[in-house]
């Protein structure tokens, strides 16, 4: 890669205006123009945030607000989420370099780097919206970093990918199709869950857990837009058949 592609930094429910301002400054430092805030619990345009942003105040001013992480990632094809946990993750944890190399792969398309809440990070459901999980490998006794410190380390590594260009140490580019956008994947999963509930494969009290396993499987596979459309077409045909009692060979 000769230069790093455009990136959105996403902060989920940030509570500290000093942290938000610091991350905005880091975005300006490392050439990231887009900051997305999911249900912020502080005033991102207040005096404290602006004081920490310094000359990165323009990043704060053009930051986009979203009610949920799924809304913030709807247009993104590749997503890396950060985690400080050591066990119980729904996907394997990667060091920054391989995770960010994967994030930078593929044709130009929206991509995002997600940071969790200061006090409790990201939930498993939120982590399952990422294609890769990144950990900074801090000490075992206290693995959680301050939000702005974690952002500094990750964005420095991201910026270095573009500064170094294609390097001998970088993994070979993936030949797989670019993942589809999150909006299409979530729509397909919603259709599938509704159908599986109706036909009795899922039950309301276990549907969430079983769909989480399916989501993890699809995230590991990183299915393309064409594959998402194929699966959604299959689900819709099965829906049509179950509602009309059609035999498998019939078409609408």
In words, what does this structure look like?
There is one protein chain. With 252 residues, the protein is α/β, with parallel strands linked by helices. The protein has two domains: 8-164, 3-Layer(aba) Sandwich (Alpha/beta knot), CATH 3.40.1280; 182-244, Helicase, Ruva Protein, domain 3, CATH 1.10.8. The chain contains ten helices and seven strands. The chain has helices at 17-29, 47-53, 57-61, 69-72, 96-104, 124-127, 147-164, 182-198, 207-221, 225-244; strands spanning 8-12, 34-38, 64-66, 78-82, 93-94, 111-115, 132-134. Strand 1 (8-12), helix 1 and strand 2 form a beta-alpha-beta unit. Helix 1 (17-29) packs parallel to helix 7 (147-164) and helix 8 (182-198) runs parallel beside helix 10 (225-244). The protein is elongated and about 65 Å long. Residues 166-172 have low confidence and may be disordered.
- SSE topology string: EHEHHEHEEHEHEHHHH
Structural class: alpha/beta
Number of helical segments with 4 or more residues? 10
CATH architectural name of the largest domain: 3-Layer(aba) Sandwich
What is the subunit arrangement here? single chain
Mean of the pLDDT scores? 85
Q: Which features characterize this protein?
A:
alpha/beta, Alpha/beta knot, Helicase, Ruva Protein, domain 3, seven-stranded parallel β-sheet, 10 helices, 7 strands, 44% helix
Write a brief caption for the model.
This protein has ten helices and seven strands.
């Amino acid at each position: 890669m000769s230069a790093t592609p455009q990136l959105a930094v996403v902060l989920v429910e940030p509570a500290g205006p000093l942290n938000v301002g610091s991350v905005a400054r880091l975005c300006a430092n490392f050439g990231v123009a887009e900051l997305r805030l999911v249900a912020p619990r502080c005033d991102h345009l207040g005096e404290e945030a602006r004081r920490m942003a310094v000359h990165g105040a323009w990043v704060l001013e053009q930051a986009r607000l979203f009610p949920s992480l799924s809304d913030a990632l709807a247009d993104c094809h590749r997503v890396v989420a950060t985690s400080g946990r050591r066990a119980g993750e729904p996907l394997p944890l990667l060091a920054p370099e391989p995770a960010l190399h994967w994030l930078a792969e593929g044709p130009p398309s929206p991509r995002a780097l997600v940071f969790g809440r200061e006090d409790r990070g990201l939930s498993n459901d939120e982590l399952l919206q990422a294609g890769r999980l990144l950990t900074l490998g801090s000490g075992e006794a206290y693995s959680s970093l301050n939000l702005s410190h974690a952002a500094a380390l990750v964005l420095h590594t991201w910026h270095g990918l573009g500064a170094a260009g294609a390097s001998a140490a970088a993994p070979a580019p993936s030949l797989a199709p670019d993942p589809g956008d999150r909006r299409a994947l979530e729509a397909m999963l919603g259709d599938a869950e509704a159908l599986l509930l109706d036909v009795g494969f899922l039950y309301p009290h276990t549907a969430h857990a079983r769909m989480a396993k399916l989501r993890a499987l699809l995230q590991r596979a990183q299915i393309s837009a064409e594959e998402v459309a194929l699966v959604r077409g299959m689900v819709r045909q099965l829906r049509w058949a179950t509602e009309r009692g059609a035999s498998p060979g019939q078409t609408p």
